[in-house]
Amino acid sequence: QQILYMEQNRDAYCLMTSLCAFIMLQPGMSMPPGDPYNLDMVPGANIISSQLLLEEVLRVRKGYEYLDSITLNALATNFFIFGCYYGQELHDRAWYYLREATTMIHMIGMDKEEYYMQFDAAEAARRRRLYWLFFVIER
To answer: How many angstroms separate the CA atoms of 44 and 113, rounded?
Structure first.
């Protein structure tokens, strides 16, 4: 669903770009055979591509105040940024983005049950899962 809004919504763009950067770093990931952009043919190309996508996310995020209106996309983007840096063994940077996300969670009140009362059951469950994902990873 988010891909449809990438050109109009910076949060959606950052979410998709950070997800792609995260996927590029996954061990054992390979491009389909016959793909003209097959990065498996160039050693280290997946890491470089991931880094370029990550730099793009950070560049776009500098252009707006994502902390003024915290969204689930912004939280998920932080998760993927965390994953990218952690995968590159840049643990200090990784923990920075994880901690920023947990701070955002507290800023919008996801640590309080009252927060979830404004949503239907499915959306509340989705948001709770995101909260617990960050809570468990940070611990």
So the answer is: 45
- Give the E-state strand segments of the chain in sequence order: none
- 115 or 8, which is more confident? 115
- What pTM does this model have? 0.86
List Cβ<8 Å contacts ≥24 apart for 94-101.
98/134, 98/137, 98/138, 99/138, 101/75, 101/134
Coil, helix or strand for 47? helix
Give the chain's largest Cα–Cα span. 52
Write out pLDDT tens, residues 76-109: 999 999 999 999 999 999 999 999 999 999 999 9
Asked whether 30 and 40 are in contact (CB, 8 A), the reply is yes
Q: In sequence order, which residues have a C-beta less than 8 Å from that of residue 131 and are 6 or more positions away?
A: 105, 110, 111
Q: Which residues contact 18 (CB under 8 A, 6 or more apart)?
A: 53, 54, 57, 76, 77, 80, 81, 84
